[in-house]
Amino acid sequence: MVMEFKAFRGQHDGSVKESVGRVDDIGDNDVLIKLTHAGLCFTDVHHIELGNALGHEPTGNIVETGKDVRHLKVGDMVGYGYNHGSCDDCDECRLGNDTLCNDRKLYGQVDLDFGGFGEYAKLNERFVHKIPEGMAPEHAAPLQCAGATVFAPFLKHDIKPIHRVGVIGIGGLGHLALQVANKWGCSVGAFTTSENKVAEAKSFGAHDVIVTKRADGKSFVPEKEEEKFDFIFCSVSSQLSSPLGRLLDCLKARGTIIPLGVDFGKFETNRYFSLLARENKVVTASDHAREQGRGSLVATRYEHQKMLEFCARHDIKPAVEVLDLNEKNLNIAFERLQKNDVRYRFVLKHQE
Ligand SMILES: [Zn+2]
Ligand SMILES: [Zn+2]
């Protein structure tokens, strides 16, 4: 039986409107979640034109379980990630790479009638994660996409505590990447365009800060080899192709640039030789990259689960601005996010 409830969808004029969301029958392995909070991620902006029920950083409480659900129960506080399902039976699934399964169920591609800003969601329990004890739902919400996105590369690329990690862009993703890198034990450098984010970058865990627009006009590229980076997380993907050359100069030999955000433009570099001569790499964490044979999507279930445990253990919290969830506030949040006017993640709180 189809259940209808309040949800929010993007309109062709770029606004967001209250609308009807739906879930169908609760299958034997499904859980029904009454959502309480949802973070706003820039990928939702990319989905406004699509007309799907928006929101993919949800937390809520389980209100119903199918008869074969074993790991979760009514009342559990849970969240779920960008991928809602996979076949469980192909080589990628067997390897744990559910996000690379040909039958994966990605936000914006399936389940178009429910989302983080809707009242309810229904998923197979395999893709639903219990929120660790002590973690507040408004902090857990942005971890479901932003947290997973910045955490997965630490596992995927085998980042070690002896590595030096740089983070470009102190925003929704960057402020979490700094915290994870610091708690991972790395030497952490933050790149920022403005002096006025230096103290904040340090408060999130940067050991040093590289201001890229220097008053003296000098290059920001570190002079000493030991000040260069093994990994640079780049959360401003749209600007990647132009500063890529200088970023490559900031890498140690065999260093890696990891773009975090989604970008649909071309990926170009005139520094092919730098990649070759120093064995540098550019790998991506975004879905788009998969078609080009580089990187992978957000986080697998294993990476997502480990991210939640790691953030709980190290008290990693997104800096959030919480707004009551309604059409007006959601439009304000979408507008301000596109103007980069949020420190550092909007969380919309569902009303009772
Ligand atoms: Zn996202
Ligand atoms: Zn599969």
Describe the 3D structure:
This protein has 352 residues and is α/β, with parallel strands linked by helices. The protein has two domains: 3-144 and 319-349, Quinone Oxidoreductase, Chain A, domain 1; 158-282, NAD(P)-binding Rossmann-like Domain (Rossmann fold, 3-Layer(aba) Sandwich), CATH 3.40.50.720. It has nine helices and 15 strands. Strands 3, 4, 5, 6, 7, 14 and 15 form a seven-stranded mixed beta sheet that branches. It has a six-stranded parallel beta sheet with strand order 10-9-8-11-12-13. A hairpin with a 5-residue loop joins strand 1 (3-10) and strand 2 (16-23). Helix 3 (137-156) crosses helix 4 (174-184). The chain is globular and about 65 Å long. Mean pLDDT is 90; it is low at 286-296. It binds zinc ion (2 copies). The site of one zinc ion has 4 residues, from loops. One zinc ion is lined by residues 86-87, 89-90, 92-93, 101, 103.
Brief descriptors of the model:
2 domains, 352 residues, alpha/beta, binds zinc ion, Quinone Oxidoreductase, Chain A, domain 1, globular
Which helices and strands appear, and what pairs or packs with what?
Elements: E1 3-10, E2 16-23, E3 30-39, H1 42-46, E4 58-65, E5 77-80, H2 91-94, E6 120-124, E7 128-130, H3 137-156, E8 164-168, H4 174-184, E9 187-192, H5 198-203, E10 208-211, E11 229-234, H6 244-249, E12 251-259, H7 272-277, E13 281-282, H8 301-313, E14 320-324, H9 327-338, E15 345-349
Parallel strand pairs: 8-9, 8-11, 9-10, 11-12, 12-13, 14-15
Antiparallel strand pairs: 1-2, 3-4, 3-6, 3-15, 4-5, 5-7
Helix pairs in contact: 3-4, 3-8
The structure holds zinc ion (2 copies).
